[in-house]
Amino acid sequence: MTAIIDYNIGNLASVYNACKFLKQEVHIVQDPEKLKLFDRIILPGVGAFSSAMDSLVQTGMKDSIIQYALSGKNMLGICLGMQLLFDTSEEFGKHIGLGLINGTIVKFDKSKMSKNEKIPHVGWNTINTHDNHTLFEGLQNPYLYFVHSYHVKTSKNNIIGSTNYGYEFTSAVQKDNIYGFQPHPEKSHNNGLQILKNFINLK
User: Which pTM does this prediction carry?
Assistant: First the structure.
C-alpha cells in the first residue's frame, strides 16, 4: 500500500490519480500514526519551504516521516516535497528541513542564465539520468514537467539525475531508501507514470 502524506500543502489529487491509474492501492493520510502501516510513502508539496515545514510540525508529520525513513521503507519526495528532505533552505531566509539527506536549497543563479531563461523554471525539460538507476528503468533522459525557483545543492553520491536550465542542477536524488524528484512525475504523462511505477515496484 502507498500513502500520500496530507499536511495541508500540495497537489494531492494529481498524485493520487496517477497512482490509481497504475492500479495501485493508495491512500491520502492525515494521521501521522498511520504512516507506519504503509509499504511506501509519497511526500508532495507546492509553495514555500518554511510554510511547508511549519505544516509538517503542526500536523505531527515531521517526526513520523523521520521515523518512517529510519525504518528502511521507501519514500519519495516530489517538488517541494523533495526539497523538504534536505538539511536547510535559503528560501526567504534560512530554514531547517527534515535533514534526511545532506544538502541545502538555493535559488537559481540568474547570473549564470540567459535573458530567455526566466525564474521560476516552468515547463518541460530533460532529466539526464545517472548510472542506469532503477527509477529510470524503461526511460532514457526523459522529459518531465518542472515548476520551481529553487534547487538543491548536495553531495555527488546523492545525485541520480540532473537537468540543464542555464546551468546543470540536481533534479533527482537518492540516499538509501529515500528518493526525490524536483519535477512532477504525476504531471509528466507516460514518462512520469513510468517513474512512479518504478518507485512503487522497488523492493
Answer: 0.95
